[in-house]
Amino acid sequence: MTPAPVLALTTGEPAGIGPELAAMLADGMPAGGGAPDHRLVAVGDPALLAERAAAIGRALEIVELAPGQPVPPRRHGVLPVWPVPLAAPCRAGVLDPRNAGYVLETLDRAVAACRAGEAAGLVTAPLHKAVIREAGHAGFTGHTEYLRDACGAEEVVMMLATDHALHGRDPAWQGSAALRVALATTHLPLREVADAVTGERLTRLLRILDADLKRWFGVAKPRILVCGLNPHAGEGGHLGREELEVIAPTLEALRGEGLTLDGPLPADTLFTPRHLADADAVLAMYHDQGLPVLKYAGFGRAANVTLGLPLVRTSVDHGTALDLAGRGVADPGSLAVAVALAAEMARRGLRH
Ligand SMILES: NC(=O)c1ccc[n+]([C@@H]2O[C@H](COP(=O)([O-])OP(=O)(O)OC[C@H]3O[C@@H](n4cnc5c(N)ncnc54)[C@H](O)[C@@H]3O)[C@@H](O)[C@H]2O)c1
Ligand SMILES: N[C@H](C(=O)O)[C@H](O)COP(=O)(O)O
């Protein structure tokens, strides 16, 4: 029998909730339950993980793996780790720029493992963008862009999806709705957004979104709703001309390639059940046009996925939550969804 695919879990900002979420995930495995469809290895400082697990009252056995040592099957209360040492001691909730390099090193280690075939996918716990910038990594804006550059990808797409949208089943969490939201621009000041919405960018992103909905999510013919940029999608040119001059002609050209696209639609009413009913994904023009809706619908039960990379990468739908770190009260739900999605993508990848 082929061994279950390995997922590398980077544990993120050490002062945040990432390390304890990793501990919760390992401790939350049902004892003696069915064999999971993946193996999991954390990437981070073993002593930090042990200390944070103890702080939140979880009995966790940390198993440090040497280079080349196989990742064991998942077991209740056991967390295999690829060790990366912290650069400076860390207190929960207290950022320290000296550990920014450590956070990036965990990512580099996980990417190298994916590229070498040691791991079938990468799941990232949250990092803190500002502290990485403060440490001198001037161009750093997030995992998505860092991984794009690390993998030499020309373009990538950030997409968040609720659990229901990921798995097509009724989620236990009643408030959740099925939704996938991709972004045309990501971590960009609002002032720069309009200039970044170009026909070339939309073309690249929509081609990736269409192809990856087919490849990773099994959608045979994706139907994508595309938001306008301006209020009421520009109100016929009276409230902005990007819809008429950039978005509409780009969508028309892509329809000629066979993509099924609706838009540009006014974003306020696009996000209503009638419009969303038959849609497979929404492309929002900027971060806070799309993500508040997604997070209202499914915060804690959604995952972030980077499309267009040569490797599988998923993440949580939340940040470092420094206010909760070290207390054991953070919700591990989104991390569990991100792991499940990466496992599903890894299986699909293996079948291609
Ligand atoms: N995937 C990622 O790496 C990722 C994602 C989002 C934000 N961030 C980064 O995290 C940092 C902090 O961002 P922020 O304060 O805007 O957002 P945040 O998600 O860290 O916190 C927002 C609110 O949500 C709560 N919250 C977050 N995660 C939770 C969880 N698992 N369970 C319960 N409550 C939770 C927090 O306590 C806080 O009240 C920023 O640097 C941001 O860029 C990283
Ligand atoms: N925009 C994401 C969110 O709000 O959830 C988040 O900042 C994560 O981005 P990266 O995966 O690029 O770090």
Automatic annotation (TrEMBL):
It is found in: Cytoplasm. It comes from the Bacteria. The keyword Cell membrane does not apply. Transmembrane segments: none annotated. Its EC number is 1.1.1.262. GO terms for biological process: pyridoxal phosphate biosynthetic process; pyridoxine biosynthetic process. It catalyses: 4-(phosphooxy)-L-threonine + NAD(+) = 3-amino-2-oxopropyl phosphate + CO2 + NADH. Binds 1 divalent metal cation per subunit. Can use ions such as Zn(2+), Mg(2+) or Co(2+). Its cofactor is Zn(2+); Mg(2+); Co(2+). Keywords: Cobalt, Cytoplasm, Magnesium, Metal-binding, NAD, NADP, Oxidoreductase, Pyridoxine biosynthesis, Zinc. HAMAP family: PdxA. This is 4-hydroxythreonine-4-phosphate dehydrogenase.
